[in-house]
Amino acid sequence: MSAPEPRAAGERILRLALPLAMLALAVAIWHATVQALALPPYVLPGPKLVARTLVDDWAILSESLVVTLVTTFAGFALAVIGGVGLAILFNLSRIVEYSLYPFAVILQVTPVLAIAPLLLIYLPQQGAVLACAWIVAFFPVLANTTLGLNSVDHNLADLYRLYGASWDQRLIHLKLPSALPQMLAGIRIAGGLSLVGAVVAEIAAGSAGAGSGLAYRIAESGYRLNIPRMFAALILLSVAGIVIYFALAGLSHLMLRRWHESAVQRER
Amino acid sequence: MLSELSLSSRPAASASVVSLRGVAKTFASGTQALDGLELDVRPGEFVSLLGPSGCGKSTALRLIAGLSEPTAGTITWGSSAAAASAAHEIGFVFQEPTLMPWTTVARNVDLPLRLAGTAASKAAPRVAAVLDRVGLAAFRDAYPRELSGGMKMRVSIARALVTDPDLLLMDEPFAALDEITRFKLNNDLLELWRALRKTVVFVTHSVFESVYLSHRIVVMTPRPGRVFRELIVDAPYPREESFRTSAEYAACCRLASEALSAAMGGAA
């Protein structure tokens, strides 16, 4: 079976076309509702007005978008480094794992919205926002990587022992590659969560006034009843989230497609 | 034909590749896998450990490989050189192919050399040669998931041979394969054994397989595992498909079967 089945190709088009059609329908209903009820923009702006605001306020919004994205990426990068690093440390030493794992759980289960105000007192604002993004995002990386490192095929582990592999050879050639699928699953979750963390912290910091991220714009526009700009900023945030999600899903697919069941295309 | 080996005809331990004397293994769970195991593996022979599952034959193999330590008794190596670097004189083939799914056939076979720090320029021709030996030269860049069960097992055997070990330990390597593939691999293994002049210790629970392959069959009792009887299969090598259907083969299988049921206390 060398040619792709027509059904599979049709399904792919359907998977793309259906959500787009639904989205178009929702926007149309939104537009019709605003028109029919003659709603004022401060109650519910129509899609046209939101789109125009997006264009008109692009200078302010894009600047804020960059601020939020920089925080998100920095938080995400630190979460990946911290999560993978801690997981490796836990894997190498039981003692470290037993000592530190509970604290990782505490950081995870305490709502970040509740921690943010405290962090804002102790850290400079940019640092506090970054710390929030990190706290929210690092745990899935840690938990998934730990799971992956601990589920190495025991026969392969024996094989490495038989050939006298050193601990770093076992880590680099055996444990990390075999943990890769779980690690990437954690990283995918972390991508979305670091955006959440950044936004939460910006909202919490909003009253401090110095922030200029997208979430801060939303809060500020809310106080000023500039509802169209709130919508425009919100749309930018979700587009950013979607792009992050697909970028990481694509990366994960690229790294696993040759060998892992989750990414391999099966011919039927 | 098949004859029982009298104890007096046993050669001195010094002529052995490896000798097990009074070897016992009790696991932490309290399971007594082996007790008082006496075994000599002689240079160049093909010896099978035959017994029901749970008779400790795999445990014996792991002890020889140094993957596990005996609770009592001694394991002595024939030459001091081998003892010094025991790990590198052994090739081990597991029950499952135990390949790294994330990398190619060539990289899998290359693993023992890579772990030993062999230069890539030196390793490459050896990998190519051994892949050629097992008939997989064309699949060097394939990933394990793209291969059939029998081909994966060939890769596993190639990996065990790539360091050119004196002793090849095989733990029910063909148990999970279909009969056609198993017969084919039996023939190929015998050919490899004759061409490369290796010593093979082959664990199996198949009477037919042990008779077909081995020069000597060590029948083991279950719980705790120890040697019940040793049988010599006198049929000359090379053994080919015609041997499988010969009256001599059938007679040997019957005798080995009887020995096996006697070892199990007539339970089977």
Could you explain the architecture of this structure?
The complex is a heterodimer of chains A (268) and B (268). Chain A is an all-alpha fold and 268 residues long. Chain A folds into 2 domains: 1-38; 45-256, MetI-like (MetI-like fold). Helix content of chain A is 81%, strand content 0%. Chain A has 10 helices and no strands. Chain A has helices spanning 6-37, 47-56, 58-92, 94-109, 112-122, 125-150, 154-162, 167-205, 214-223, 227-256. The longest helix of chain A is centred in the C-terminal third of the chain and has 39 residues, at 167-205. Chain A is flat, with a radius of gyration of 23 Å. The mean pLDDT of chain A is 88. Chain B has one domain (2-8, 15-263): P-loop containing nucleotide triphosphate hydrolases (Rossmann fold), CATH 3.40.50. In chain B, strand 9 (216-221) and strand 10 (226-233) form a beta hairpin. Chain B has 9 helices and 10 strands. Chain B is globular, with a radius of gyration of 18 Å. By secondary structure, chain B is of the alpha/beta class. Helix content of chain B is 37%, strand content 23%. Chains A and B meet through helix 7 and helix 8 of A and helix 3 of B.
